[in-house]
Write a structure and sequence with these properties.
By secondary structure, the protein is of the alpha+beta class. It folds into 2 domains: 1-103, Gcn5-related N-acetyltransferase (GNAT) (Aminopeptidase, 3-Layer(aba) Sandwich); 106-150. It is 31% helix and 36% strand. It contains 5 helices and 6 strands; from the N terminus they run αααβββαβαββ. A 6-stranded mixed beta sheet has the order 1-2-3-4-6-5, sandwiched between helices. Strand 3, helix 4 and strand 4 form a beta-alpha-beta unit. Helix 2 (16-29) crosses helix 3 (37-44). The longest helix has 14 residues, at 16-29. The chain starts with 9 loop residues before the first helix and ends with a strand. Bound molecules: coenzyme A (COA). Coenzyme A is lined by residues 29, 77-80, 85-91, 112, 116-119, 121-122, 125.
């Protein structure tokens, strides 16, 4: 839980280790469209970004990254290293994410590839409902927008 950052004083609490860990996880979990080290760095400096990491024996093995403002939040990423999947880590991260949402958050949005059945099952397990479909949002693949109303 120590990596959670939701205050406005981001520059002072900026965590360069978390930047490297998340950039590594990005590369491993999203090889086709990963955020660069620089993109991760600048996002972690933003006041509206919420993130946390999950560790196993000191190694970062999963994370989530979201942006929260006013009564809305958008979950950008939630991922677990392949070799640690199917062991409940995704659920742990999602529970933690939902616990640390800023007070007053009413809606949480996310986008997911139509083919990503594992992620969709995880989201639906936590009460997310399909709101809309975006044709060819991911190149030749449709995207679904999901929402969770608190
Ligand atoms: C989505 C992801 C984070 C799930 O992480 P995980 O640690 O494997 O998930 P868990 O073991 O906690 O399982 C959570 C739920 O996901 C679903 N799930 C997990 N593995 C699954 C599989 N192989 N097939 C179908 N559903 C699966 C189940 O509903 C499961 O709950 P249950 O075991 O109670 O039925 C992980 O698969 C991942 O990192 N995927 C690549 C990155 C990604 O696509 N992220 C989402 C878009 S940002």
């Amino acid at each position: 839980m120590e990596n959670i950052k939701i205050d406005m004083n981001k520059e002072a609490e900026y965590n360069p280790v978390a930047v490297k860990e998340i950039a590594y996880l990005e590369k491993s979990c999203f090889p086709e469209d990963c955020w660069s080290l620089e993109a991760v760095r600048s996002s972690l400096k933003r006041a509206d970004i919420i993130y946390d990491l999950e560790y196993s024996e000191g190694k970062a093995i999963g994370y989530f990254l979201a942006a929260a403002s006013f009564d809305q939040c958008e979950l950008y990423r939630i991922a677990v290293l392949r070799e640690y999947r199917g062991q409940g880590k995704g659920k742990i991260l999602m529970e933690r994410f939902l616990q640390i949402l800023p007070e007053g958050t009413e809606k949480i949005y996310l986008e997911v590839r139509e083919s990503n059945r594992t992620a969709i099952r995880l989201y639906e397990k936590f009460g997310f409902k399909k709101l809309a479909e975006r044709k060819n949002y991911y190149g030749h693949e449709n995207g679904f927008i999901y929402v969770l109303t608190k």
